[in-house]
Amino acid sequence: MDNAHLGLFGLLFFLLVLISAFFSGTETALMSLNRYRLRHLAESGHPGAIRAQRLLSKPDRLIGLILLGNNLTNILITQLATYVGYALFGDAGIAIATGGLTFGLLIFAEVAPKTLAALHAERVAFPASYIYVPMLAVVYPLVWLVNLIANSILRLVGVSPDDVEATPMSREELRSVVNQAGGLIPRRHQKMLLGLLDLDKTSVEDIMVPRNEIVGIDLDEPWDEIIEQLEHTSYTRLPVYHGDIDRIAGIVHIRHVFKLAQSDRLDKETLEAELRAPYFIPESTTLNQQLLNFQSERRRIGLVVDEYGDIQGLVTLEDLLEEVVGEFTTDPTAHSRDIHPQSDGSYMIDGSIHIRELNRALGWRLPTRGPRTLNGLILEHLEMIPEPGTSVLISGYPLEIVQTKNNAVRTVRAQPRLPQYRQAR
Fold first, then answer.
1. Is 397 in contact with 417 (CB distance < 8 Å)?
2. What pLDDT sits at residue 239?
3. pLDDT tens, 276-316?
4. pTM for this entry
5. Cβ contacts of residue 273 below 8 Å, gap of 6+?
6. Can you say whether residue 243 is alpha, beta or left, with left for phi > 0 and alpha for psi between -120 and 50 degrees?
7. E strand or H helix at 296, and its extent?
8. Average pLDDT value for the chain
9. CB-count exposure of residue 22 (10 Å: 0-12, 13-18, 19+)
10. Whole-angstrom distance, CA of residue 52 vs CA of residue 132
11. CB neighbours of 291 closer than 8 A, spacing ≥ 6?
12. What Pfam families does its record include (predicted)?
């Protein structure tokens, strides 16, 4: 074999390896595309994305086209290398060509192009789509025949290629996407999105104001005391009852009370006439569903009841929204009656506080699965009613019982999370 033929064969071999690398790399690039981003780019009019989406809509055709081209190219490379090796070195050249070809194709036609394509999927896939679309149109009959045989074999084992659909992203997958967004989504917005995803995991029972903390108007009290309560209340809506919250009469809007007072018509009868029928919420209702219920019922406040119909607490639209957007204040502890910062960096905390409220106010991570109050969490952990002075470590937070009363923990001195637990977070 003279030098002219050897140079021609070398050039042909180089071109075939490039073609094989193209098929291998573009296959990886197209299959690595983010389908949600691809859909967004296609809807935005990106021509490369539109073509790539069209190709991926029929993955069996695309894979058939790529493998057909790649295998045909690799067969030509093998035949050419074998011929050149035999021409140069005789029978030994066949073994040399086989060994060198295996190593060369693995590096230059498989590993390197596929790694590059995986790292820069869009930059490889979109230009390649301009080649694959017309190529598919040209060799479609052959691709169709290959797919017909392959799909028939798949159907024999119970797999139907026609059932290919984009798998919806699960809640946990979406959570991972939001967490990994980094600087693309501001941290506060990330927390809001994660809060929305958690609405289905939380029930109204988890965020309600407990029954013993409900602030309302008792119509059986003296009228002067009722007037004083109405004048000094910080709430927009209040439950009104007779003697006990179980004998609820309705919900009053303070704005309507002021209108009656301005016209000098405010008394118990007119107050009762302004009441709106109470709205009851089953305690197991998820926050997501309750948000929809508040919207459809045009309500902002509801009474939470258990399976027996007994009132367990009260929940408002504001309570629900705080689960998404956080507290409606810069410093939540400044307006919390249950959390009192101390000069040494600790906090004096009421044992009846909800753990979710405590976590949200201080940015802590006490466990929320199980007991809903700090008192319940401590009792569950110790499995006994502790004496004052008892200390316990829960999830890395040192808690000291300061006061107990009526078989419950009333006051706790809590320290910030220990450093070693913060690092393991």
1. yes
2. 95
3. 999 999 999 999 999 999 999 999 999 999 999 999 999 99
4. 0.60
5. none
6. left
7. helix 287-297
8. 85
9. buried
10. 9
11. 199, 320
12. CBS, CNNM, CorC_HlyC
Assign 10 to helix, strand or coil: helix
DSSP, collapsed to helix, strand or coil, labels residue 299 as coil
Report the sign of the C-alpha dihedral through residues 371, 373, 375, 377, in that order. positive
Q: Identical fold at 199-325 and 332-423?
A: no
- CB of 382 within 8 A of CB of 390? yes
Helix (H, G, I), strand (E, B) or coil at 348: strand
Domain 332-423 in CATH 3.30.465.10: yes
Residue ranges per domain, the chain?
A: 3-163, 199-325, 332-423
Q: What is the CATH number of domain 199-325?
A: 3.10.580.10
Residue 394 neighbours by CB under 8 Å, 6+ apart: 366, 367, 377, 378, 381
At residue 314, φ and ψ (nearest 5 deg) are -135, 140
142 neighbors 68 (Cβ within 8 angstroms): yes
Structure tokens at 210: 């407990």
How many C-beta atoms lie closer than 10 Å to residue 134's C-beta? 9
